[in-house]
Amino acid sequence: MLLGHETAWREWHEALAGERMHHAWLLAGRRGVGKGSFALAAARELVGADQTEAQHHPDIHVLTYAPKDDKEERKRADGKPYELARSIRIAQIRAMQSRLSTRPTMGDRRAIIVDPADDLERNAANALLKSLEEPPVGTYFLLVSHSPARLLPTIRSRCRVLRFPTVSEAQMDLLLRDLAPDADDATRAAAIAAAAGSPGAARQFVDMELGKVAQAMGNILDRGDPDFHLRGTLAGLIGARPDRERIRAVLELARSVVAQRLEASLDNPHRIIDAHSELVRLSGEQPTYNFDAGLLAMEIGTLLAKAAAASERADG
């Protein structure tokens, strides 16, 4: 059992043992707290599969990012690296719904996992809503959500919510010492601070070697960047061709670094609030926008520089 899942498991098991199991569940919490792992394990229990069958059982259907296009689909078929789409598309929902016209294959229950439901295209979300409104007998939905506010209110209203809490810094430190024993103290501390209670995010920050990126962001916040030198350093550390996951992690890191300064700011925090708001906006756009890596790195650096005490105008 992953850290912080005890309450969610208790609620799930009580529902399984009850007479009327709710047909739709919203698994809500920060990215990286293990909601996807919980969804697969819960689906396995629901359909009576063993652990090795969870991802290949005919009555467990997982909807997530598919290959971006036919070319990338052929790469997947050939066993080559391929690029993923930035959203879950309506064609995937339609294909799932066509299966719902038949009975489950091996029992009387099937599980549909949507991970992450936040990234459903608008048409796909509306199509899914119809299945939630009129669920076939024996079909149960588990929607993994990092940002429930991005879901249609009508989808949220039809789901029972399971909340997954963040993990304490002490627990995170023990976990990283076990999972990433080669990480030095500075990298581990930066990862824990930036991950804001998400073990998965902390591990990702360590694996992506984002400790130096966090330090570069902190330098800009401490000193400003009147000659653009520090922004150039930051861009170099982010990389010229970061993939989507690295861009997302960098944006989350920047948000966390700025949020920490906001908590420590005792006077005139408006410049920090403004920077944080812009980083939240960029994070929201990231799943669907095709950002130029160099321009994005400079924009992040500029937001940090504007938030720095050194960049504040003397007249306030």
TrEMBL record:
Name of the protein described by the UniProt record: DNA polymerase III subunit delta
Gene3D superfamilies: P-loop containing nucleotide triphosphate hydrolases
PANTHER family per record: DNA POLYMERASE III SUBUNIT DELTA, REPLICATION FACTOR C / DNA POLYMERASE III GAMMA-TAU SUBUNIT
Provenance organism: Erythrobacter aureus
GO CC field: DNA polymerase III complex
Alphabetical list of InterPro entries matching this protein: DNA_Rep/Repair_Clamp_Loader, P-loop_NTPase
GO biological process: DNA-templated DNA replication
